[in-house]
């Protein structure tokens, strides 16, 4: 299934249909990307979270690239955003994933009319949002342990939120936390946007995965934390292409990781002086077999970028569909975005893990030195690819191809039924 990709904005009030020239936009951030890339391997080796790097990006307006120019942002389209995220991932794949929740919340505020201007102004001012959705413990699918609502004695319009979340990627860097919760007064599932700068909110950098180690993921805990009623939104009003959007950020992470692997293996081959007696040339840089390996990785990086671009176009169509006033067409575009990001995930999972492993075929034993830290590319690709298991996505895509069954656009994770003994 593919979309008929339109290029113009569908409504003058639509936030971003691509008013920015990409090269001019990217030029603003590439010097920062270069500085980020220079320290990426050391940050990961020493487990130093990229506080300063994210602060520099947001100060330069990176968090507001999707905000319309008229509102103080860069007016980037979704294909432009995902090209930027791919370039950033090539510098340090942890950072776009750390900002994944932020850009999703920006997208939601672009589409939803509630407090739109208030939030866009915050993004332009450099404020960023984190992500806090996954419950800790044996919570059954469909249940929400994190609770938010009014409490006796609190000022009018002031709620309290209590709960614990894991995989709260980016929240440790954030000013606001986009939190999935349930209201205590009417049991409606909501998004509570919690101010991170208060004593009732704590974060632990306790993500123990072997890759993507500096995304700031881990546990977020809310204990009687304050959240204003105006910042509690019914989940049913969330932007409809959200799961496709979240997946597309991970696609950009994978594409950028392959690009980083290509860059680093090319540098290693170019600078290597030792050769093997049974090789094919007087230098690794002239050996056709070694060049073939590097060329394959480069081609895989190209294919990955193209895949992200196609998925981003489908997302742009879904975004524009929110302003059409045609529910049937809007739903069709959202289904297309879900399917195309799923197809892309199935392809890029294999492509990225193979490419980041194959770079070692162009190197010798010295290539696995922990000092060089080249294995981080495979570890990061493998970790990013493990989000939202691709095997389920492949089955969903196949079910559409064979039976015309549309994909689910919202899903959850939780405890399964207790096995019968």
Automatic annotation (TrEMBL):
Pfam families: Acyl-CoA_dh_2, Acyl-CoA_dh_N. Keywords: Monooxygenase, Oxidoreductase. One of its GO terms (biological process) is L-leucine catabolic process. It comes from the Bacteria. The keyword Oxidoreductase applies. Transmembrane segments: none annotated. Coiled coil: none annotated. This is Monooxygenase. It comes from Marisediminicola antarctica.
């Amino acid at each position: 299934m593919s979309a008929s990709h339109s290029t113009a904005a569908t409504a003058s009030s639509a936030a971003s249909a691509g008013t920015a020239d990409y090269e001019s936009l990217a030029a603003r951030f590439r010097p920062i990307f270069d500085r980020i890339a220079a320290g990426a391997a050391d940050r990961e080796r020493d487990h130093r979270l990229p506080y300063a790097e994210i602060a520099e990006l947001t100060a330069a307006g990176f968090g507001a690239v999707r905000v319309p120019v008229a509102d103080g942002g860069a007016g980037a389209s979704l294909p432009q955003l995902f090209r930027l995220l791919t370039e950033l991932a090539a510098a340090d794949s942890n950072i776009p994933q750390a900002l994944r929740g932020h850009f999703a919340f920006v997208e939601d505020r672009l589409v939803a009319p509630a407090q739109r201007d208030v939030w866009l102004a915050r993004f332009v001012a450099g404020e960023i949002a984190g992500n806090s959705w996954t419950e800790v413990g044996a919570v059954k699918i469909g249940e929400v342990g994190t609770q938010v609502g009014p409490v006796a004695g609190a000022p009018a319009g002031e709620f309290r939120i209590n709960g614990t979340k894991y995989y709260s990627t980016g929240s440790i860097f954030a000013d606001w936390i986009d939190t999935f919760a349930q209201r205590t007064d009417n049991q409606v599932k909501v998004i509570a946007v919690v101010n991170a700068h208060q004593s009732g909110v704590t974060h632990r950098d306790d993500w123990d995965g072997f890759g993507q180690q500096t995304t700031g993921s881990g546990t977020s805990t809310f204990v009687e934390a304050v959240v204003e009623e105006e910042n509690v939104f019914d989940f049913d009003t969330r932007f409809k292409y959200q799961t496709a959007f979240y997946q597309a950020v991970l696609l950009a992470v994978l594409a950028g990781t392959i690009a980083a692997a290509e860059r680093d293996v090319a540098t290693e081959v170019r600078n290597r002086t030792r050769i093997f007696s049974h090789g094919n040339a007087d230098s690794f840089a002239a050996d056709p077999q070694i060049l073939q390996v590097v060329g394959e990785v480069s081609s895989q990086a190209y294919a990955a970028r193209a895949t992200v671009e196609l998925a981003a176009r489908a997302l742009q169509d879904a975004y524009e569909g929110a302003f059409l006033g045609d529910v049937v067409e809007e739903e069709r575009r959202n289904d297309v975005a879900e399917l195309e990001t799923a197809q892309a995930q199935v392809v890029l999972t294999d492509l990225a893990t193979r490419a980041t492993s194959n770079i070692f075929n162009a190197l010798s034993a010295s290539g696995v030195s922990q000092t060089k830290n080249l294995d981080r590319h495979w570890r990061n690709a493998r970790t990013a690819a493990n989000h939202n298991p691709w095997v389920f996505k492949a089955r969903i895509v196949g079910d559409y191809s064979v039976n015309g069954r549309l994909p689910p656009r919202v899903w959850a994770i939780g405890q399964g039924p207790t096995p019968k003994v």
